[in-house]
Hints:
The complex is a heterodimer of chains A (309) and B (163).
Chain A: H1 2-33, H2 52-277, H3 283-296, H4 298-307
Chain B: H1 13-39, H2 52-59, H3 70-86, E1 89-94, H4 100-113, E2 119-124, E3 131-136, E4 139-144, H5 145-151, H6 153-162
Parallel strand pairs in B: 1-2
Antiparallel strand pairs in B: 1-3, 3-4
Helix pairs in contact in B: 1-3
Amino acid sequence: MDTTLLMQIFILINAVVLGAVVTLAIQYARAHRANKPAPQVAPPVESVVFDPAVKRQILQEAETNFRRVVSSSVTSLENDLINTTAKLRTQLEKFGHDAENEEAARYHKTIEELHNEAKTILGAAQTAITGHQTDLTAKLTERQEALEEQLIEKITGLEQELVKRQAELQAELNERQAELEARLAKHHAELRTNFVERQAKVEAELHRHQTELEAALKEREVSLAKIQSSLDSDLTKRRAELEDQLTAEIAAKQAFLAKQLDTKLSDAVTSFLLEALQHNVDLGAQAPYLTALLDEHKAELLSKVEGTP
Amino acid sequence: MTTLALPDNICSPQDLTALILEIREYARWYDHETIKRRSGTVTTTTSPVLSVTTANYLRSFTKDGSTLGPNQLDELLHELETYKKTAPTITLTLAAPAPESIKKTLTNWCRRELSPNILVAFDFNRTLLGGMVVRYGSHVHDWSLRRNLMNTKQSFTEVLTHV
């Protein structure tokens, strides 16, 4: 990293110097190319007087020579600059490649170191875990054995206590059973005695009830015979009444039908008379009758007429 | 209430209406003729033909056979209109169209016994057989032979049974 930085600084310094040189060269070139009046040189106290034409020729040759020198200098400087630039580029590329290769190698190296270190750490951790597992297994085995021993002891104690308790319970059970059997025998005897007495009482009561029921049954038979005879007489009476009522209804129905027959017959006769007589009406003959009719109902008509405002 | 007395042959409201129309037409003609006479117009028109009943009725107002004047005719028309509006009307339905004699007899009886200014309308219904149906306002009295037969049909059948 430090080498790269130094290289960059060096390249920058070179570029600055090269720029300054180029700038100076350009300034000189421009100064020579400008049509500046030639510096007035104090006329020498010559002793030799040149012809003006010769003088002019000399001056032109001097100017041409100066221009040629400056041009060659500029060309040389430009060539130098191009060469320097190419060299600098080559050098930079070389430096770049070197730096890149160096960085890559260093990176690979670092990764490899880290990998190895990780491997070492993992191996140590594996070893530690294995040792810890071994310790834990040993401790667990020891603990399990201790617990098994304690459990066996407890089971043994419980079994002994259970046997003892079973013996006690069996003794108590036998005692209770004997006691219950004695009480049961006693109750059985008492029940047998009571049952005989109760059976005698129930039989006596049953006999008494049977006698009473027979008496009630005979009485009920007598009562039923009376009711039967009463019902027979009522039925006969009711039948006679119904027969009388039916006879009366039939007679009424007959009278109604006869009345209806009369009505229909009278309607027919009336209709016949109406049909037969309505074409032969003589009002002239009815004049006295009509007057008499009005006379008959005079009071009724008069009340209606006078009652009208 | 008017004091007019109509003859017995003008009995119904229709008769009275016909009388009023004829008198009105006559009064109009008479009025026109009077105006023409006053104005000296020579042309005259024939008088409208009046029925015997109307002529006799108008004649009954004058003793010497002269005619009534226009004002008297107008008064008469006014009184007849009033009579028509105020007179009670009774309707008699008979078994046949009533002849004039029956109409007169019955109208005379009604005006004598019931009311002197009553109008009697006549109608007929052949199914009545005889007698009459009298309607006055909303009251209807059926004194027809048909109604008598319908009311006494039970005894009629009994009579037939004994024949």
